[in-house]
Amino acid sequence: MSVQHPLQGAYFDRAAHIVRELPADAGIEIAFAGRSNAGKSSALNTLAGVKALARTSKTPGRTQQMVVFNLPSGHRLIDLPGYGYAKVPETLRNHWRQQLETYLSNRHSLRGLVLIMDIRHPMRDFDREMLRFSAASELSCHVLLSKADKLSRSERARTLQQVRRDLASTPFIGTVQIFSATTRLGVEEARLAVAQLLGMDTSPAPSNPVSG
Ligand SMILES: Nc1nc2c(ncn2[C@@H]2O[C@H](COP(=O)(O)OP(=O)(O)OP(=O)(O)O)[C@@H](O)[C@H]2O)c(=O)[nH]1
Ligand SMILES: [Mg+2]
To answer: Which of 89, 25, 26, 95 is nearest to 65 (CA)?
Structure first.
């Protein structure tokens, strides 16, 4: 039996090359951002509980569009193209930088970011830029230190501490956790954080409602 969770039932809506192709700017959405190959699409799939919802790849630069997924509640999850992959032609990189800026600064329905960082390479320039940006826009951010299965337990804990310290001295509104799409470490915590960013009611349903 599958257990219900807040991101259950996500389905593909569309892939947009430009911001204008996104759904009308109404309702509530959150976006998955991060450097190329950080594990954005894998995180989205794991959180939604659908194996191949968003396309993932060993080769960086897989997600080339803003991919929109709808939830039955009407909320949206947006998988953003990875940033900083050198082999993507410069014209395309400039295109994405521009679209990303337009999207992040003008999208009213955007309520929060899930910023995914490879736990082995956290807090790179792009990540700092995103954190600065989201803080300036008063956008909440939930950081996933992804691919945690690549580190030992003690290395994970150490990196989490370092990132926490770093975030404390960075303009930042939000939270951070360890995550692995492969071992599903941190999945429940991340689902809850995403649901909260979306403004969903996350209070547990009464397990044994009393009638009468
Ligand atoms: N070991 C491990 N590998 C992961 C994890 N998450 C993602 N990967 C791998 O990392 C690679 C990139 O994952 P994607 O989810 O496609 O990354 P992305 O950030 O969406 O990449 P772009 O769309 O290219 O920017 C793939 O080979 C994934 O299988 C994880 O938690 N653990
Ligand atoms: Mg991707």
So the answer is: 95
